[in-house]
Design a protein that fits this description.
disordered N terminus; mainly beta; 19 strands; about 0% helix; Immunoglobulin-like; about 270 residues; 2 domains; 5-stranded mixed beta sheet
C-alpha cells in the first residue's frame, strides 16, 4: 500500500518593531460586536447564574445598550428553566458586557439548549460572525467524591470495529479547570486505526453521566466528523463513591462511518 506523507511546516511571522514609536496598534475600522464564545455549557446549580459575554471592538464615552433575541427554532430549553437579566448594556469605556442567565435547576432538562442571537448594539455593528451563542444547560448537583486519579477502563459493550477508546488500560482522570462537574482524560479513538491521544470529557450531572457540551469529537475518522454524544440512556453514578462508575455514550452519533451505537465503559479506581 502506497502512503502519501504530507509535511506541514509552521508559519512564522516576522514582526519588526520601531525603536522610536511604541504606540500600540489600535482598531480603526468600523466598530463591530459579537459573542466571545459561540458554544458554552452552563451547569445549573441552585441560585446560580451564568454570564454570556458580548464584545465590542471600540469603547465609547457613554453606556451602550445591546439587544439579544431567543432563537425559538433552535432553543429546546423550556421557558420556566431560565430567566435573563433585563439590563443589557456595555459600560462607558468598556469593551464588553454580559447577558446574565439565571437557571432554575428543578426545571432544567439535561442537554437542553438556549440559543441567543445578537441583534443590535448601540453605536456598533453586529458582526457577520460569532453573532449566535448556543448555551447547553445541565442541572448540576454537588459531587462529594473526587472522581479523579488513575482508573482502569474497559469497554463493556460490543466493539464498534475494535475498541472505541483505550481498552483494559489505566488512564488518568482529572477535573476540568473552571468546571466542578466535568472530568477529562486522554485516550486514543478507535485504537485499531489511530493511536494519537485525544481528550475525552464527560460530566457528572445530578446522578447522570453526560457528554460535556455538544459532545467530544473524535480525532480518528473515515471521512466525517465522528462525535461521541449523550447516550439514549445515560449511566448513573453515586456522588459519594468514585471507586467504580460507568460512562455510556452514543458512538458515531451522526452516522459518519456507520450506524450510531451505544457504548459503555467501566472505570475502576486504582
Amino acid at each position: 500500500m502506497k502512503k502519501n506523507l504530507k509535511l506541514i511546516l509552521p508559519l512564522f511571522v516576522l514582526a519588526i518593531f520601531s525603536c522610536e514609536d511604541n504606540t500600540p496598534e489600535t482598531y480603526t475600522g468600523e466598530s463591530i460586536a459579537y459573542f466571545s464564545e459561540t458554544s458554552v455549557t452552563y451547569p445549573v446549580e441552585a441560585d446560580s447564574s451564568f454570564n454570556v459575554e458580548v464584545v465590542v471592538s471600540e469603547s465609547s464615552t457613554a453606556d451602550r445598550v445591546f439587544t439579544v433575541e431567543i432563537d425559538s427554532e433552535l432553543t429546546t430549553a423550556t421557558d420556566d428553566s431560565y430567566s435573563m437579566s433585563a439590563d443589557l448594556s456595555i459600560a462607558a469605556g468598556a469593551y464588553s458586557g454580559n447577558v446574565v442567565i439565571n437557571g432554575v435547576v428543578s426545571n432544567v432538562v439535561a442537554g437542553s439548549k438556549l440559543v441567543l442571537d445578537l441583534t443590535s448594539v448601540e453605536g456598533s455593528n453586529v458582526a457577520s460572525f460569532d453573532n449566535t451563542v448556543s448555551i447547553t444547560m445541565n442541572p448540576s448537583c454537588p459531587i462529594v467524591a473526587d472522581f479523579t486519579g488513575q482508573y482502569y477502563i474497559e469497554e463493556l459493550t460490543a466493539f464498534v470495529d475494535g475498541p472505541t477508546l483505550n481498552h483494559e488500560q489505566i488512564v488518568t482522570v482529572s477535573a476540568l479547570a473552571g468546571n466542578a462537574t466535568q472530568r477529562t482524560f486522554d485516550t486514543a479513538n478507535y485504537i485499531s486505526y489511530c493511536s494519537t491521544p485525544n481528550p475525552f470529557t464527560f460530566e457528572l450531572n445530578c446522578g447522570q453521566v453526560l457528554m460535556a457540551g455538544e459532545g467530544t469529537q473524535a480525532n480518528c475518522s473515515c471521512g466525517g466528523n465522528l462525535f461521541f454524544t449523550n447516550a439514549s440512556t445515560p449511566s448513573a453514578y453515586d456522588p459519594e463513591d468514585d471507586s467504580y462508575f460507568e460512562v455510556t455514550f452514543t458512538n458515531d452519533a451522526y452516522s459518519d462511518c456507520g450506524a450510531p451505537a451505544q457504548t459503555t465503559y467501566s472505570f475502576t479506581k486504582q
